[in-house]
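User: Run a structure prediction on this.
Assistant: Running it now.
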Amino acid sequence: MRKLIKKILRESDDLDWIRDTCPINYEYLLGKALHFQPLIDNGRDLERILDLLRNLGFKVVGSLRNHNDIFDDGDLVEGLYLNPTDNVVVWTGEVSYYSEDYKEHISEWAGTPVEVLDGWETLEDYI
């Protein structure tokens, strides 16, 4: 009940109820980026998120596969881009460290404007 009230109160337009009642899926997330504030700073949280993305059909490769190396090197994860070219999850470290805006950073990297979603809010019911 509390979550329902919270969702009702945060509706920002007439279509929010659709987003709140439709389960998250591959097609919805493809080509978008998930931005995390606070940043992901531990393997447990990152693994829960990556498990969900794998189950939806995204590929987790490279340093994300052995993500403990990310945190061992002192990095934090600010964003995950769900690349539509190859379905691979691409991670971004702390871009604010370089005085960049995450949306600008990921759009420049992708070569196209990228819709950025609040990662924690988008995934809160699934992880």
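The chain has a mean pLDDT of 86.
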